[in-house]
Specification:
Elements (H helix, E strand, L loop, with lengths): L2 E6 L4 H10 L8 E8 L5 E7 L2 H10 L5 E9 L14 E2 L5 E9 L2 H10 L11 H9 L5 H11 L2 E9 L2 E10 L4 E4 L4 E4 L11 E4 L4 E6 L2 E6 L4 E2 L3 E3 L15 H7 L1 H12 E2 L2 E2 L8 H6 L2 E6 L1 H18 L3 E5 H4 L10 E7 L5 H12 L3 E6 L5 H5 L2 E4 L12 H20 L5 H23 L1 H10 L5 E6 L4 H15 L3 E5 L15 E7 L5 H13 L3 E7 L11 E5 L8 H18 L18
Parallel strand pairs: 18-19, 18-20, 20-21, 21-22, 23-24, 23-25, 25-26, 26-27
Antiparallel strand pairs: 1-4, 1-10, 2-3, 2-4, 5-6, 6-7, 7-8, 8-12, 9-10, 9-11, 11-15, 12-13, 13-14, 16-17
The structure holds fructose -6-phosphate (F6R).
Fructose -6-phosphate binds next to helix 9 and helix 16.
Length: about 600
Amino acid sequence: MCGIVGYVGKKEATPLLLSALKRLEYRGYDSCGVGVISLKDGRIAVQKTPGKIQNLVDLLKTKDLPLSHVGISHTRWATHGKPTRSNAHPHADTSGKILIVHNGIIENYQELKAELQSKGYRFTSETDSEVIAHLIASFGRDDLFKAVQKTLKKLVGSFALGIISSDFPDRLIAARLGSPLIIGVGKDENFIASDVSAILEHTRKIIYLKDGEIADIRSDEVCVYDLSGRKVPAKIQTVSFKLDAVQKEGFPHFMLKEIHEQPEVLSAMLSLRLKKGMVVLEGIGLSDTALVQCRNIMIVACGTAYHAGLVGKYIIEQLACVPVAVDVSSEFRYRSPIIDKNTLVIAVSQSGETADTLAAVREAKARGAKVVSICNVVGSSLTRESDGVLYTHAGPEIGVASTKAYTAQLGMMYLLALKFAVIHKKLSGFRVQSLVKGLKEIPATLKKILKDKARIAKIARANAHFGSFLFLGRNVNFPSALEGALKLKEISYIPAEGYAAGEMKHGPIALIDEYRAVVCITPESDTYEKMISNMQEIRARKGKIIAIATDGDTGIRQHASNIIYVPKVDRLLTPLVTVLPLQLIAYYIAVARGNDVDQPRNLAKSVTVE
Ligand code: F6R
């Protein structure tokens, strides 16, 4: 999704804005731009281009921007209008004195545009964002802050905004409603950014701007106001994660680095959350009595987080006997879900900014449900709107394709399932302890699989030519099949489908021939024999099988062309293990195809529009 960086201070703005903007590349974008106020003559200067930030850097070699201490920059992920130079941000008003960058969508832009055009304002782009610059100008040039305030009251939709004006060359105005924006507080310099990773090398002191807040930022002062202009306290928080966390540290891609971080992420989570064999869910915001009173659970999430939710359904129902429904967030809110005060809604989201999930949570709360979120980004919108938060603390996930955030979400689902099983008295102490022990062994198991990655890479490369893939799994590994297919299609662009293996005969079998690769997730399980039958059916139709099987399963060799062995773990815990080879298969196939693994085409890391 779009990225914003703004700066006001004493340093040269352009190089700083560009390097910070580069750290937001992972969010996904297709054009970019930078605008500054010239130190020499106070004029606004802008450069922008379709494509990558490197194009902008190259452009600036010939069309330099003036020396400046104040500026805003942007990566745009096209929604209204193609990724062209004129649609790229920043956008200026007709006088060229006001400059804005915007994330989000202005839903009423057409009416506003028509009104402004009738008054003589000239538009140069097809974007919804440009109206903001003209609207600010329409409220006069004497008081920038007031003009912004009046503008925001007219906007319907969502926004994170950075605004500068040549009439006020020492100020940067920021505002947010529904799209993330943070302020970085430095010494004699301040920043705005879409997320912390952009400015971490300059400051760790962060103000998380809340919805409906406007900030008036100078190099030595940050004042935050609500929409009515009342000053509100701005809490400065210090973020703890290291700069290393947003660098590749020798890995060719963030995705591979993040895949390798999974053992650590899980092990940190388990040591934080398992005390003396008991699950500690600090932050959940509900007492055990309140949790027991929840008659049913509804999980809402999108994409990969939805798959973590599906695993959650299997394990919570199997371990705790509490009914669980799982919805993709965009469906939940429009299907009139039957929920009340005895429903616990669990919202799962890496970013905590996914517009559909936020909307689902609002819908759930309006219907009286309690909402607990499982989230990775501290202070994100979702965490502020939930009754309780279970942070996954997986560290910043930069690769667009989610890997470590998924494993962390799964880890949290297992902890939740154990918690529910214990409070509902559905599991013997022995079974609880055996699952806790099994969970604690998973990080070491993942490390073992990672040691075998060269073999997995070889298998992936040998199959990279297939034009389509089918992923099959059963029971707790049906969601793994969905996740394997999603990972592959996201970064390799190969059509891939995930199915419950039992469904194969009800349609997908028609697709099987020698041109179709089928990944069968076949660890030791209660449905193992059924998976073997499916594999026979595929082989009979010349499908190429890649199996993910348990160490020591020699019998599977007669059914599959390629086998990736994973260590034996408790059957219920297998999704934590089988997903790793699936991530690696997707990664190595995408690399073999020469794709941009960390920033796959058309995708955004955080989907802040519905
Ligand atoms: C897939 C992926 C997406 C996200 C989805 C939800 O690799 O990253 O499918 O899982 O957009 O995002 P969050 O978890 O931030 O709500």
